Amino acid sequence: MEIVDRKENSLLSRIEIRFQLRHEQSATPSRSNLRSKVASLEPGSSASNVIVKDVNTRFGQPLTTGLAFIYDSPEAMQIEPQYILDRHGVAAEEEDAPAEQAPAEVADVAPPAEIETEDDVSGGEE
Question: CA 45, CA 114: separation in Å to the nearest integer?
Fold first, then answer.
């Protein structure tokens, strides 16, 4: 695997890597395999902090290109959309939301009776 382009994005606490991988005599690598290979490119990073955003395999060629983000921490990864985190198996931080409670029982109260009068003009005509 080789790095085509590398950018440090300190505002988002990540390193953005465009990579290129030749895989002769084998299928397109899986996302988890790509995550571990990208993590090996950057010293001190782990595969759990890598998000593989874009993977493109050329038709008829054993060449895969892609974009990966290496985050500094799991907290920094929370800016990614939830479906991306789910795809990578990253557990989202639970918010301090109260546990779901069963709805309170509603007392059986009859609705107010409708009063029918002859003076009631609902159409506005008299």
Answer: 70
